[in-house]
Amino acid sequence: MTPTTAHSRKTWAIALFAGILLAMRIGIARSGIAASLDGQLRPALLSFALLLAPLWFFGFGLGEWLAQRLRSPWSRVAFPAPLGVPYLVFAFPAGTLRWPITVVVVLLPAILSAVVNSCSSSAKLVWQDAVVLGALAAVYLLRLLTPAWPYPKLSVLPKLYVADLALYLYIVVRKLDGVGYSLVPSRHTFLVGLREWVYFLPLGIGLGTVLRFIHFHARVPPAMSLLISVGTFVCGCAIRLVPFQQRRKLQLAIRCAGDDCRHFLWSSVAGAEASAGVVDHAHGGGCGLVALV
């Protein structure tokens, strides 16, 4: 990849990230979410932006860039500690700061990084992987971080935290090749997205209609609604999007970062806003195709 191409990719990544945040801000303002946050909309948006950023920019090569520059074991262990900052920027203004949670969100990344860093360079599953993936699954499935953002409308934030941590551990620290996490569009991802859309269409629309999960509305949605829906879908891609086709042992780590696939996809087909999820085994560009079609 030439320097010009790399610079253009970075520019587009930043611009699209800003567009997603703007679309989310507009969507939240037009919905009832803002009222449910007791005046904590700005801290919530800032926390969301800080948690979304790693997932988004890792899809454009940030993980590989960090892996090349964090050479010492101590730097790799200490670097993810700021993953606790999104909690702090929300908890301080909201007055919900709890020191036990602060310790967990700051030290958990460092502890798991130390465990993963002790692995051998082999790509085979080792006991450290079992410990780390088990810890990530427990954090999500037991909802241990739900009190960190104690509002139902912010339930996506713990998922983002877990996904951020999983990506860092296995792309930066473990340095597994062939992970396949990318948001860069290509012909292959387009075809994967088209294939997944074809697979999903009969089940999503057919079963969704039979169960009355989705409803047909004979109207053209406003342009802003389409923009918000696409922005929401991209956020869902970031939460759930890692095929790990060559390292299936890592799928658990990302799967536990978002299990609302059916709800989100059916909602997006109906033109409604939703929370998170994406078709399995699809790359970023392909997921975007599924959303747009």
What does this structure look like?
There is one protein chain. The protein has 293 residues and is mostly helical. The chain folds into 2 domains: 3-173, no CATH class; 187-292, no CATH class. It contains 14 helices and no strands. Helix 1 (3-30) packs across helix 11 (223-240). The longest helix is centred in the N-terminal third of the chain and has 28 residues, at 3-30. The chain starts with a helix and ends with a helix. The relative contact order is 0.13.
Which spans of ≥5 residues are poorly predicted at pLDDT below 50?
239-293
Report the structural category: mainly alpha
Q: How many distinct domains? A: 2
Percentage of residues in helical conformation: 55-70%
- Radius of gyration of CA atoms, rounded to a whole number: 19 Å
Largest sheet: none
What would the keywords be for this entry?
65% helix, 2 domains, globular, mainly alpha
Topology readout:
Blueprint: H1 3-30, H2 33-36, H3 41-58, H4 62-69, H5 73-78, H6 85-94, H7 99-117, H8 127-141, H9 156-173, H10 187-210, H11 223-240, H12 251-255, H13 261-269, H14 284-292
